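Message: Study each token:
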Amino acid sequence: MDLVTVAILTKNEEHHMVEVVRNAKKLTDSVLVIDCGSTDKTVELAENEGAKVVFRAWDNDFSAQRNFALKHISTKYVLYLDADERMDDELIENIKQNISNNTLAKYTFVEEAYAFGYHFKHGMYGPTRKLRLFPTKHVKWENKVHEHPVCNLPQKKLDGTVHHYTYIDYKHWFDKMNLYTTIWANDKYEKGKRINSLSPLLHAFFAFFRSYVLQLGFIDGWAGLYSSIQYGIYTLLKYLKLLELQM
């Protein structure tokens, strides 16, 4: 009997589906795809690879999609994996070993990013620890974008890595940036957040400084500079959109 379900959120991910489902199948036979209206072959490819597919209409709320997945999972644990992420063999074996014990916990693992043809080691795309593995009945997600999990259990670290093959090109990045900043601004405005006219510039400058200097983005050369500028632009845009809603 499977102890974990891998949950994958999708929309038009046909170029990733075969590989991500096969990667998930190395861990478990229980693979759940939560699709929000793909118009390509995402659903067909996922089902052909043995994944179960459920549908939830997209309403600009990533947490709602992740929480919806929990209603369709009966295994002890759930692992959230994005369509453009792949677990290495070390991580898969460590997950199997840890979830087989009787002590409930939430688990983190290291994620390394590959974007625009570059493997980032520092800055905003540098390696980070992700919290994605939880006992199914002990987690819920909050925030519409940049969602975060709430799980009041001890946290443990897993050895191994998830490789994140993120933005294909700058158009891909721009489209996602535009979507995410709009959702973020609307969500913060609805929750009562208000800013002054200097906030967008100040937050953008600090975002660039944090990525390029504090997170050592400069070590990655031109790629580190570009990605830090991207982070500054992203931050500037989301605060400008929030400021616009106040007018």
